[in-house]
Write a structure and sequence with these properties.
By secondary structure, the protein is mainly beta. The chain folds into 2 domains: 31 residues; 101 residues, Immunoglobulin-like (Sandwich). Helices cover 12% and strands 45% of the residues. Strands 2-8-7-4-5 form a 5-stranded mixed β-sheet, with no helix packed on it. A 4-stranded antiparallel β-sheet has the order 1-3-6-9, with no helix packed on it.
């Protein structure tokens, strides 16, 4: 009986350390591996220049980055926005179909898996304009 208690205890500690066992908020993984809870674009289909609100929520991230641009461009050519808050929103006005790639970072330099969303622009021209950031 005593051995099963310690085995269960060690499994729980290992699960927390690896980020497998999580609370709702804040993130409790001992290694602090960040996690993307949500990343959305509303609406996902627009006309050129219409506002799109990007919303995100992460756990365990010190900050996030969002890179975006047309899907036919190399990611190195995307517009880059760093040091955004771990939970927040950004309003953009795409003029062409756009891909948005969000990544996160912690003080320990542990990155989360990048999350990708896209916005389809009907009757597209060129470019993406940022309106506001919160």
């Amino acid at each position: 009986m005593r051995t099963s208690f310690w085995l269960l205890f060690l499994l729980l500690v290992a699960g927390v350390a690896l980020g497998v066992v999580r609370g709702n908020d804040p993130y409790i993984g001992l290694l602090g591996v960040p996690d993307v809870v949500t990343f959305t674009a509303t609406p996902a289909e627009i006309v050129p220049g219409q506002a799109v609100k990007l919303d995100w929520k992460t756990r365990g991230a010190a900050s996030i980055t969002i890179d975006f641009g047309p899907p036919d461009q190399s990611r190195s050519a995307y517009e880059h926005h760093a040091n955004l808050p771990p939970t927040g929103s950004l309003v953009v006005k795409p003029k062409v179909d756009s891909v948005f790639v969000m990544g996160c970072d912690t003080a320990l330099r542990l990155d989360c898996q990048p999350h990708v969303i896209s916005v389809h622009v009907n009757g597209a021209t060129t470019g993406t304009q940022i309106e506001a950031r919160r």
